[in-house]
Amino acid sequence: MESLRELYRIGRGPSSSHTMGPGRAAERFREAFPEADSFQVTLYGSLAKTGKGHLTDVAVREALEPLPARILFDMEREDLPHPNTMELEAFRRGERLGFWRVMSVGGGKIEMEGMKEADPPQIYPLGTFSEIKDYCRARDMYLWQYVEQCEGPEIWDYLSGVWEVMKEAVYRGIRKDGELSGGLGVQRKAMYLNRQRHMDESRETRENRKVCAYAFAVSEENAGGGTIVTAPTCGACGVLPAVMLYKQEQKGFSDRDVLKALAAAGIIGNIIKTNASISGAECGCQAEIGSACSMAAAGLAELFHMDLDQIEYAAEVAMEHHLGLTCDPIGGLVQIPCIERNAVAAMRAINALSLANFLTYTRKISFDVVVKTMYETGRDLFSKYRETSEGGLAKMYPGS
After folding, report:
1. CA-to-CA distance for 269 and 281, rounded, in angstroms?
2. Chain centroid to CA 369
3. Which residues, listed in sequence order, are joined to residue 42 by a DSSP beta bridge?
């Protein structure tokens, strides 16, 4: 598996696969052909169908500036190596200098056809939870210790930076109000949720309100093009920061404790990314918000010093009950149902933690099995439910 640096990426929203990935591809392409005087980029599949709402063309054009770039949206082609495929061409005085076919495979990661040597190195020798669990048990190790062993102690500096950006996204988001751009008239709600107490607020009600406020805050920042961390994607970036920050405030965990939890959550995200997908265009929203919920549940279990079986059960429960979740963003925007979905998943992660505390040793399903199930389910989803904005809420919403 790759480094957690490839999973937790710091960047601008609103979409890791549709904004960050294509922008990164265009930037690399420009660097590869410095003598070019113009470019043409053709977007296919989900990139074409939801690219306008996800600001794909904006990200690509900005990466290629100040040179002129022609952006084409091809919504008809079907023989694609990945639902998020793009082709880049470089020209000088009308003559083509270079051509790349790039796949944006989720979480900001890109793959370039015929250029495997450009892939990030494999840092982790083990790729399933069962293998990692057996390895850690044999050496009496925690997951965070396994991360440190594979990545080196410098990973903590990186994760510290990740945590700071996550917290900053929450703090910015709960202080902003107003309407998000895009034409849906979606109002920011994090500030309202954070400030408005229920007239007879119980401890449980406060937890729900605060966790949801934090999830809304980060997701609204993402939708507004703010700086966030993919966890594992932009569209699902609010889940992990919400539960980590709330539990830190509630229980007094140190930042060091949280970094260990982020490491454990990163192992879960990496396993999903390696053996299935974190791309909504490939496997529906179960691959994004389901993965984020699974990561958050595992991170919480690590935060509360649960054992490896309990961490596994928390992650498995969180994913299992997102199976089949469709990706149907209205107008191709990362707003409805994406923002609210982050809040619901954050609360579900806390519920998964509670179940893991009580029921771990009665479970029948392993985490590896549910990851394989998610991937097969996602591949079986009809294409209009995989981030094309052609089905579900995106179709039924009035005015769509």
Report:
1. 17
2. 21
3. 72, 87
Q: How far apart are CA 25 and CA 37, in angstroms?
A: 17
Q: Where do the DSSP E strands lie in the chain?
A: 10-12, 38-44, 69-74, 85-92, 95-106, 109-112, 227-229
Distances (CA, A) of 86 to 27, 33, 39, 47, 313: 13, 17, 13, 8, 38
CA-CA distance, 258 to 255, in Å (whole number)? 5
Long-range contacts of 357-361 (CB under 8 A, 24+ apart): 357/304, 357/306, 357/310, 359/313, 360/309, 360/310, 360/312, 360/313, 361/309
DSSP strand pairing (69-74 vs 38-44): parallel
Q: Using CA of residue 372, residue 374, residue 377, residue 380, what is the dihedral sign?
A: negative
pLDDT score, position 184: 95
Rounded CA-CA distance 356/361 in Å is: 9
Q: What is the pTM of this model?
A: 0.93
**String of DSSP letters for 88-150:** EEEEETTEEEEEEEEEEEETTEEEETT-GGGSPPB--S--SHHHHHHHHHHTT--HHHHHHHH
Q: How many CB atoms lie within 10 A of CB 376?
A: 12
Half-sphere exposure of 129 (CA within 13 A, CB side): 30
Per DSSP, 188 falls in state P
Tell me, what amino acid is at 123?
I
Look at residue 399 in the predicted model and tell me its pLDDT: 74
For the chain, 400 residues long, the average pLDDT of each consecutive 10-residue run is 97 92 96 97 96 93 96 93 96 97 93 80 97 98 98 98 98 97 96 87 93 98 96 97 98 98 98 97 97 98 97 98 96 96 98 94 94 98 93 88
Q: What is the DSSP letter of 40?
A: E
Please say whether the beta carbons of 355 and 15 come within 8 A.
no
- CA 261 from centre of chain: 17
Omega within 30 of 0 (cis) for the link into 232: yes
Q: Hunting for tokens 């052609």 — which residue is that?
A: 390
Output the furthest CA–CA distance in the chain (Å, rounded): 71
- Report yes or no: 81 and 113 within 8 Å, Cβ to Cβ: yes
Tell me, what's the pLDDT at 400? 62
